[in-house]
Write a structure and sequence with these properties.
Strand content: under 5%
Domain Cyclin-like: 36-152, 174-258
Number of domains: 2
CATH topology of the largest domain: Cyclin A, domain 1
GO molecular function, one term: cyclin-dependent protein serine/threonine kinase regulator activity
Radius of gyration: 20 Å
Protein name: Cyclin, putative
Distance between the termini: 48 Å
Largest sheet: none
Pfam families: Cyclin_N (PF00134)
Helix content: 55-70%
Structural class: mainly alpha
Oligomer: single chain
Family: Belongs to the cyclin family.
């Protein structure tokens, strides 16, 4: 079952977006941007962590089938979250999802125009969409349409996307550290928290489509252990316990750390950018 998780083999295959002349840099930034939206929307809607992870996997996998120039991130993101809510039985009305994304888009637009205000005082209610408006109706139709399209592109095989590295994290930490006297409960809890943060960040990359979930979980533990000065020495082959290769751990760690160099990403209109490039 897990073999279906891996969609791409390293850097050998071009994505549909790259085939349509979207730069690798723009694609990476738009993927990060979409995952940021999903995470922020889920926080506002108080959805489960597993729902966020599932929505991000759906989002990434979709863009290994379709191009960013053909399907706008701003519509695939809410459709991914709506579908994830159903898959994870985390009920959320489509109106709430539309209103939340509408808020996020308007909020971002105001920030881009250098409109300054106290973020603490900004609430979803300040940017409510009119349910009678054509914009709302269009968004609703788009979510239903793209939800079915995402399912179709997944081949209706849901088992591909509901195995997340988060499931492996705590059992693996328990296996590594729980019986060692020199690691107290506070330290292992801190390790788990930091590892969880790295896992959440990893979902903004395409690692979930390139590596088995257990590999990403082990790499996150390794990063957290390094941050806390907990020695996980290669020569002990501790990673073999989880059927993971050390080279894979290094590659995953590098990819996660690269995220922090990129920072927060913003929307890029790749279709307009492509048209402008063709005119030159």
């Amino acid at each position: 079952m897990f073999n279906d998780i891996i969609l791409i083999d390293g850097e050998k295959r071009k994505t549909p977006s790259e085939e349509k002349n979207v730069s690798k840099s723009d694609e990476v930034k738009l993927r990060i941007y979409g995952c940021q939206l999903l995470q922020e929307a889920a926080i506002i809607l108080k959805l489960k962590a597993v729902t966020v992870a599932t929505s991000q996997v759906l989002f990434h996998r979709f863009y290994f089938k379709k191009s960013l120039t053909d399907f706008d991130v701003k519509m695939i993101a809410p459709a991914s979250l709506y579908l994830a809510c159903k898959l994870e039985e985390d009920f959320c009305r489509v109106y709430k999802i539309i209103n939340t994304f509408y808020f996020l888009y308007k909020y971002e637009d105001l920030k881009s125009k250098h409109y300054y205000f106290d973020v603490k005082n900004v609430k979803v209610e300040h940017f409510k969409i009119d349910v009678e408006s054509q914009e709302y109706k269009n968004m609703k139709v788009d979510i239903y349409t793209y939800e079915l399209l995402i399912l179709k592109e997944m081949g209706f095989l849901i088992h591909k996307i509901n195995q997340h590295p988060h499931l492996f994290l705590l059992p693996y930490i328990h296996s590594l550290f729980n019986n060692l006297n020199k690691f107290d409960d506070d330290l292992t809890k801190k390790l788990a928290q930091i590892s969880w943060g790295y896992l959440n960040d990893s979902m903004r990359t395409t690692l979930c489509c390139e590596y088995q979930p257990r590999c990403i979980a082990v790499a996150s533990i390794f990063l957290a252990a390094y941050k806390l000065n907990i020695p996980l020495i290669k020569s002990t082959n501790w990673f073999k316990l989880f059927d993971v290769e050390y080279d894979d751990i290094k590659k995953i760690c590098i990819r996660i750390l690269q995220l922090y160099k990129i920072g927060r990403c913003h929307y890029i209109d790749v279709l307009t950018k492509k048209k402008e490039a063709l005119k030159k």
